[in-house]
Design brief:
With 132 residues, this protein is mainly β. Helix content is 4%, strand content 46%. It has a domain of 83 residues: Jelly Rolls. The strands form two sheets. The protein has a six-stranded antiparallel beta sheet with strand order 1-2-3-10-5-8, with no helix packed on it. Strands 4-9-6-7 form a four-stranded antiparallel beta sheet, with no helix packed on it.
Length: 132
């Protein structure tokens, strides 16, 4: 399936233990965007990494020490950050907490292989014809 259902219910959607005190729940996705909920145990670390996706992260609960391209900032509930494609980033959570991560394009590595195989990327990336 190349997109999630239109409605997602937290008590029915799988929560995946991704190790290191982190859990992830898919909130919704299609070929253009993805949102996930991430739980951090107290002291958990989202190790620095980089990817081609634009990312917006919103802090729901807890305190996070975010590092983006060498700049570290303490973020609390209600705060958010924009992570540009290929920016080196990570976070530690001294308190335990919850984030909402949104990605564009979606993180295909979070989905089963072949999820978007039926998408015509050339057609998707083509400039729309001008209206007359």
């Amino acid at each position: 399936m190349s997109q999630s259902e239109n409605f997602s219910f937290g008590n029915e959607t799988e929560i995946e233990d991704i190790g290191g005190g982190l859990k992830r729940q898919m909130l919704g996705y299609n070929h253009e965007i993805m949102a996930v909920k991430i739980w951090f145990d107290k002291g958990a670390i989202g190790y620095n990494h980089a990817h081609r996706h634009s990312q917006v992260t919103y802090v729901v609960e807890g305190e996070f020490h975010f590092n983006i391209d060498g700049v570290t900032t303490i973020m609390k509930p209600g705060d958010s950050c924009l992570i540009q494609p290929w920016a080196d980033h990570g976070a530690t959570c001294p308190t335990g907490g919850i984030l909402i991560d949104t990605f564009s394009p979606p993180r295909e590595d979070f989905l089963p292989p072949g999820t978007f195989d039926n998408i015509d990327r050339e057609k998707l990336n083509a400039k729309p014809a001008e209206k007359k």
